[in-house]
From TrEMBL:
Domain Gfo/Idh/MocA-like oxidoreductase C-terminal, residue spans: 136-346
InterPro entries per the UniProt record, alphabetical: Gfo/Idh/MocA-like_OxRdtase_C, Gfo/Idh/MocA-like_OxRdtase_N, Gfo/Idh/MocA_Oxidoreductase, NAD(P)-bd_dom_sf
Family that this chain belongs to: Belongs to the Gfo/Idh/MocA family.
The organism of origin for this protein: Ornithinibacillus salinisoli
Ranges where the Gfo/Idh/MocA-like oxidoreductase N-terminal domain occurs: 4-123
Name the UniProt record assigns to this protein: Gfo/Idh/MocA family protein
One matching Pfam family: GFO_IDH_MocA_C
Length: 350
């Protein structure tokens, strides 16, 4: 298997800290180019990390150099237009979450990617966590039996990001799109990727643009896109999602609340013969007719590293990624269903 040449599109906060670092640590990867609408930043980061090329657009890159795969780390609404350009050239694609913001656009891209035999992976990082993998192993060994309910929650105290994340045009939505995507994906994947039947949801802008003292926030690197501090998205969302097999996910998400902050995703999974909880990782079942709680012992892995290495492996072997574009699309359909239900103040039935 040959080594691969890759480019990162959007070398902002996450790409420099995560994608670039782990791509450069992977012995099978040559990072050939960085692309960013902020060309000065692309050039500066390329120089700092010894990367041969820096460009302002993906078209300029295609005209001057070849890559086997791109990793798209730009604002959410730009993911699919960029992915389409890569797929047209037969180039494999990693798309940061969420896959996109518009279902028709995503479906058009997926058709193109299939025609061109392009691999698509979506950055659902939490699937690579060790504690999550342990729960998945219990599920795959059928320890829990039929899973019928998941309560999935992530509340931040003061965690609204700064920049384009709060601008609907660029982000497609707020807390639900940004962190709800991870929480919903985790519950949906662990419950066996069921087909959605109906969604009832409410999205709310509760605290909006707050000015709380002595708190920090995740901040986008792009000053131009962040101008004006637009805040026209939700910072709270709650949803009740029914699936065709009778299972239910109850979702609660917040960027900012007057309440207690969760230390990571809170998940309770209920099955007919057992269940699981995050965080801390706890397994519930019966042994010899006795109710038991198990706390598995494990060493934490480097979740982002495992995610990036998985993408590289899939591009090199042409294996299907753990989170392909179709799954990313199913999650987007549910997220948009929650927004629709909130807007029409009714349950959305599929
Ligand atoms: N998996 C995770 O846990 C995780 C964590 C953080 C961010 N993300 C995702 O990563 C993406 C980027 O987030 P970020 O925090 O790095 O944002 P950011 O604003 O810091 O970085 C985005 C970069 O893209 C550039 N850009 C914008 N539009 C472009 C275009 N059309 N062409 C080329 N470059 C363009 C910007 O100049 C900026 O440098 C988002 O989709 C976000 O949801 C995922």
């Amino acid at each position: 298997m040959k080594n691969i040449h890759v480019a990162i599109i959007g070398i902002g906060a996450i790409a420099e800290a995560v994608h670039l670092k782990y791509l450069q640590e992977n012995e099978h990867v040559i990072v050939n180019a960085l692309v960013d609408m902020d060309l000065e930043r692309a050039i500066a980061v390329a120089k700092k990390h010894d990367i041969p090329y820096a460009f302002q657009t993906i078209d300029e890159m295609f005209a001057q150099t070849h890559v086997d795969a791109v990793l798209i780390c730009t604002p959410n609404a730009t993911h699919i237009p960029i992915a389409k350009k890569a797929a047209e050239q037969g180039i494999h694609v990693f798309i940061e979450k969420p896959i996109g913001t518009n279902l028709e656009e995503v479906e058009g891209y997926l058709t193109l990617a299939k025609e061109k035999n392009v691999i698509t992976m979506v950055g659902m990082t939490h699937r690579f966590r060790r504690d999550v993998r342990i729960i998945k192993e219990y599920i795959d060994n059928n320890t829990f039996g039929n899973l019928y309910y998941a309560k999935a929650k992530l509340f931040r105290g003061r965690g609204t990001p700064k920049g384009w994340f709060t601008n609907k045009e660029l982000a497609g939505g707020g807390a639900l799109m940004d962190i709800g995507v991870h929480v919903l994906d985790l519950a949906w994947w662990l419950m066996g990727k069921q087909d959605v039947q109906s969604i009832s949801g409410q999205t709310i802008t509760g605290l909006g643009n707050y000015e709380t003292k002595y708190v920090s926030a995740w901040t986008s690197k792009n000053k131009q896109l962040n101008a004006g501090q637009v805040m026209d998205v939700d910072d709270f969302a709650s949803a009740y999602i029914r699936f065709k097999n009778g299972a239910v996910i109850n979702l609660e998400i917040a960027w900012a609340i007057h309440g207690e902050q969760d230390e990571g995703i809170q998940l309770e999974l209920l099955g007919e013969q057992g269940g699981a909880r995050l965080t801390p990782l706890t397994i519930y079942k019966e042994e010899n007719g006795i109710q038991t709680e198990v706390s598995p012992t494990y060493v934490d892995g480097d979740t982002f590293k495992e995610e990036i290495n998985h993408f590289v492996h899939c591009v090199r072997t042409k294996e299907q990624p753990l989170i392909d574009g179709e799954q990313g699309n199913h999650i987007l359909k549910m997220l948009l269903g929650i927004y629709e239900s909130s807007q029409i103040q009714k349950e959305v039935v599929y």
